C-alpha cells in the first residue's frame, strides 16, 4: 500500500512540475484518500471524487458570479458555501464524496478573495482545482491497474487465504498441545466478528463467470461457517483442563493439513483438491472438532455441484439494502443543521480574522475547521491534536527542515523527486496505521505538499511554511472556542449510547434464532452482525475520544471508559458463540427438533434477548427489570436434550453435544457480564472488576 501510494503521488508531482499545473497539492493528496480495496472500488471512489469536484466547481462558478461585486454579498456567499459543505458532510451516506465537495469549496474561497488578478484568472484557477484532482484520480487508477496486473492477488483471495491460515493455526496449536499465538487469537476474534459479508460482496463484484461465482459463494459461506465454529472450538480449548488426547490431536493436525492444501490450491489458482475427510461427523472428545471436519469436507464438493448449499448463499447482498444518497433523517433531524451551523461559525470566524488583518496565508484555517469537524467533542479534539502534530511534522520538520538543510543543495528535479518520495512514503506508512494514528500521516503529507507543491520551483521563503502552520493554529483555536461550545454531545454519552445499541442488536440476534422463516432469519442475522461490528468500531473510537475530555467528572468518565473497554471482548465472544449457534440452526431448524427441546431452546433465547435488553437499559441508565435466571434456562435445555437421547436409547450425537456446549458457554459468559454491568451503573463506586477473561 505504501509503495502504491508513493508511486501515485510522485507521478502526480512530476506531472505538476513538468506541466506547471496550479494547485498541484490537491492532486497529490487525493492519491492518499482513494480506496484501494480492489480496482473496481478504486475506480468508483475516484469517479465519485471527480463528480463531487465538478459539482462544487459548477456551484462556485454559478454562485460566485452573482455575489462577487459587493463585499457584503461576497461574505454571505462564503458563509452559505461553508454551511452547505458542513451540512453535506453530515447527511451524505458517502463521507468521501461529501469531503471532496468541501475540499473544493475550501480551496475556492481564497482564490476568489484574491484581488490582484482579474475574474477570468480566478475562474481559470478554480477549474484547475478540479482538473488537478482528476489527474490524481487517473494516475491512482492506472497505478492500481498495473499493480493488479503484476500482482494478481486480490483482497478476495487474500481474505480467503487469511481465514484458512487462521483456522489452520488453531488446529495446529490444538494438535501440538501448545497455546495459540496472540496474533492468531486476534485474527480469529476479528474474523468471527466481521463474518464473510465483505468476501461475498467482493465475489459478487468480480469479473468471474456466473457459474464460478455461484460455486465460490458457496465455498465462502462454508469457510465462514468453519471460522465461526473454530472460534467456539478455541473457546472450548480455553475452558479445557485436561490435555488433548493423541487421537484427537492427530485429527486436528490432519484437518490442518487439509486446509493447508486448500490454501496452496488457492495460490496456484486451482480448484481445491478432495479433502479425504469424512462428511459424516465422528465423535470426538473435543467439542466442535467433528463439525469442523464435516464442514471442511464440503468445501471441495461446492465446486463439483454435488452438494446443495442454498441455505448459506441465498441473496448474499440483501444485507446491504438499497444504496441511499442521503441519510434517512437528512432533512428531519435538527442535529445535522446544528453540526453545520457550529462548523460554519468556526470557519467564518477564521475567515473574518485573516481577512481583517490582511494575512491571506492563514487561509488554511478554514480547511482546518472543515477537516477537524466531527460529531463529538472528544473525537474533534483528537483530530485537532493530530492535525496540529501533522502540521508541525509536515510543515516545520519536513517542510522548513528541507528548505533549510536539503533544498539549497538540490539543482534538479531528480533530487526533489527523491525527497518528495521519501516524505510521501513516511506519510503513507503512518496513514496505513490504525484509525487512532492514520489521520496524522495525511496531515503530514498535506502540510508538506502545501509548502513544496504550490509553486513550480524550490520554495525558498520560510514565510510560506510559517503561514500554513499558523493558519492551522488559528483554525484549531476557532474550533475550540466556537465549535466545541454549541450543542455539544460528549464522547462518553456517545460511547454509552452506541454500546447500549449493540446490546439491543444482540438481543435481536437471539430473537432471530427462534424465527420460523429460516432464510429470512439468516439474512437478518447477517445484517445484525455487520451492524454490531460497526458498533464495536464506533465504541472503540469514542473510548479513544474520552481521553481528550476534561472536567470535574473526568475520573468517573475514565472509569466507565475502562469498564466498557473491558466488556467489549466479552460481547465479541458472545456474538461469536451465537453465530456458531446460528450455523447449527441452519442444519436443524426448530420445526425439525423434538417439541420439548425446541421449546426449551426458544425459552432460552428469549431469556438471552431479555437479559441483553436489561443490560442495554442499565448502560443507558434507564429503569430496568430484574434479570432472568439464565443459568437455569440453559440447564433446562441441556436436561431436555439428555432426556430425549436417554428415551431413544441412543448416545448423544456430536452435534447435540456441541449445542449443549454452546448454550453452557453463552450462559457462563452472560451471567457475570450482567452482574458486572449492573454493579457498575447501579452503584458506580463499587463496580465489579472480576469478569473472567473469555478471549
From TrEMBL:
Protein name (Swiss-Prot/TrEMBL): Multidrug resistance protein MdtO
Transmembrane segments: 12-34, 46-68, 75-92, 98-115, 127-147, 351-373, 385-406, 412-430, 437-454, 460-483
Key word Lipid metabolism present: no
Keywords, in A-Z order: Membrane, Transmembrane, Transmembrane helix
Species this protein is from: Acidisarcina polymorpha
Amino acid at each position: 500500500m505504501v509503495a502504491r501510494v508513493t508511486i501515485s503521488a510522485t507521478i502526480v508531482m512530476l506531472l505538476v512540475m513538468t506541466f506547471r499545473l496550479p494547485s498541484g497539492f490537491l492532486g497529490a493528496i487525493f492519491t492518499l484518500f482513494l480506496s484501494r480495496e480492489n480496482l473496481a472500488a478504486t475506480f468508483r471512489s475516484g469517479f465519485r471524487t471527480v463528480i463531487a469536484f465538478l459539482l462544487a466547481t459548477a456551484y462556485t462558478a454559478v454562485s460566485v458570479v452573482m455575489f462577487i461585486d459587493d463585499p457584503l454579498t461576497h461574505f454571505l456567499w462564503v458563509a452559505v458555501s461553508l454551511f452547505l459543505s458542513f451540512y453535506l458532510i453530515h447527511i451524505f451516506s458517502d463521507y468521501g464524496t461529501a469531503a471532496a465537495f468541501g475540499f473544493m469549496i475550501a480551496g475556492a474561497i481564497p482564490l476568489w478573495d484574491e484581488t490582484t488578478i482579474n475574474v477570468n484568472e480566478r475562474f481559470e484557477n478554480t477549474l484547475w482545482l478540479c482538473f488537478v484532482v482528476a489527474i490524481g484520480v487517473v494516475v491512482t487508477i492506472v497505478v492500481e491497474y498495473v499493480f493488479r496486473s503484476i500482482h494478481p492477488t486480490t483482497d478476495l483471495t487474500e481474505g480467503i487465504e487469511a481465514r484458512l491460515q487462521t483456522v489452520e493455526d488453531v488446529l495446529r496449536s490444538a494438535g501440538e498441545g501448545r497455546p495459540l499465538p496472540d496474533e492468531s487469537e486476534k485474527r480469529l476474534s476479528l474474523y468471527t466478528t466481521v463474518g464473510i459479508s465483505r468476501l461475498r460482496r467482493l465475489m459478487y463484484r468480480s469479473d468471474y463467470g456466473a457459474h464460478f461465482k455461484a460455486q465460490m459463494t458457496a465455498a465462502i459461506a462454508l469457510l465462514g461457517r468453519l471460522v465461526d465454529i473454530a472460534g467456539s472450538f478455541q473457546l472450548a480449548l480455553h475452558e479445557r483442563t485436561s490435555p488433548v488426547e493423541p487421537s484427537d490431536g492427530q485429527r486436528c493436525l490432519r484437518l490442518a493439513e487439509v486446509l493447508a492444501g486448500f490454501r496452496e490450491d488457492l495460490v496456484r489458482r486451482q480448484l481445491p483438491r478432495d479433502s479425504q475427510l469424512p462428511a459424516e461427523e465422528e465423535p470426538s472428545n473435543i467439542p466442535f472438532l467433528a463439525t469442523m471436519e464435516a464442514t471442511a469436507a464440503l468445501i471441495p464438493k461446492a465446486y463439483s455441484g454435488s452438494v446443495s448449499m442454498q441455505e448459506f448463499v441465498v441473496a448474499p447482498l440483501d444485507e446491504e439494502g438499497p444504496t441511499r444518497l442521503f441519510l434517512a433523517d437528512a432533512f428531519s433531524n435538527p442535529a445535522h443543521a446544528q453540526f453545520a451551523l457550529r462548523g460554519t461559525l468556526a470557519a467564518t470566524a477564521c475567515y473574518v480574522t485573516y481577512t481583517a488583518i490582511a494575512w491571506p496565508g492563514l487561509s488554511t484555517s478554514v480547511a482546518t475547521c472543515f477537516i477537524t469537524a466531527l460529531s463529538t467533542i472528544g473525537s474533534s479534539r483528537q483530530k485537532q491534536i493530530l492535525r496540529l502534530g501533522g502540521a508541525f511534522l509536515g510543515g516545520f520538520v519536513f517542510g522548513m527542515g528541507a528548505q533549510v538543510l536539503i533544498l539549497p543543495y538540490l539543482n534538479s528535479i531528480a533530487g526533489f523527486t527523491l525527497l518528495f518520495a521519501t516524505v510521501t512514503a513516511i506519510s503513507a506508512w503512518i496513514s496505513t496505521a490504525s484509525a487512532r494514528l492514520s489521520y496524522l500521516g495525511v496531515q503530514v503529507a498535506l502540510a508538506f505538499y502545501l509548502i513544496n507543491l504550490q509553486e513550480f520551483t524550490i520554495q525558498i521563503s520560510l514565510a510560506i511554511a510559517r503561514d500554513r502552520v499558523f493558519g492551522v493554529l488559528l483554525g484549531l483555536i476557532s474550533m475550540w472556542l466556537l465549535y466545541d461550545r454549541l450543542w455539544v454531545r460528549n464522547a462518553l454519552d456517545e460511547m454509552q449510547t452506541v454500546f447500549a445499541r449493540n446490546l439491543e442488536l444482540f438481543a435481536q440476534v437471539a430473537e432471530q434464532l427462534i424465527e420460523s422463516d429460516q432464510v429470512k432469519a439468516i439474512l437478518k442475522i447477517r445484517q445484525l452482525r455487520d451492524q454490531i461490528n460497526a458498533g464495536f468500531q464506533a465504541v472503540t473510537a469514542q473510548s479513544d475520544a474520552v481521553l481528550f475530555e476534561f472536567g470535574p467528572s473526568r475520573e468517573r468518565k475514565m472509569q466507565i471508559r475502562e469498564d466498557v473497554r473491558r466488556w467489549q471482548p466479552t460481547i465479541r465472544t458472545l456474538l461469536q458463540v451465537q453465530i456458531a449457534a446460528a450455523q447449527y440452526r441452519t442444519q436443524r431448524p426448530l420445526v425439525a427438533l423434538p417439541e420439548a427441546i425446541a421449546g426449551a431452546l426458544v425459552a432460552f433465547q428469549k431469556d438471552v434477548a431479555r437479559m441483553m435488553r436489561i443490560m442495554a437499559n442499565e448502560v443507558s441508565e434507564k429503569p430496568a427489570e430484574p434479570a432472568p435466571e439464565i443459568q437455569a434456562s440453559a440447564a433446562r435445555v441441556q436436561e431436555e436434550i439428555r432426556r430425549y437421547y436417554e428415551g431413544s436409547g441412543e448416545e448423544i450425537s456430536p452435534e447435540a453435544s456441541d449445542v449443549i456446549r454452546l448454550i453452557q458457554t453463552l450462559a457462563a459468559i452472560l451471567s457475570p457480564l450482567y452482574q458486572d454491568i449492573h454493579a457498575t451503573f447501579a452503584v458506580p463506586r463499587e463496580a465489579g472488576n472480576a469478569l473472567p477473561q473469555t478471549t
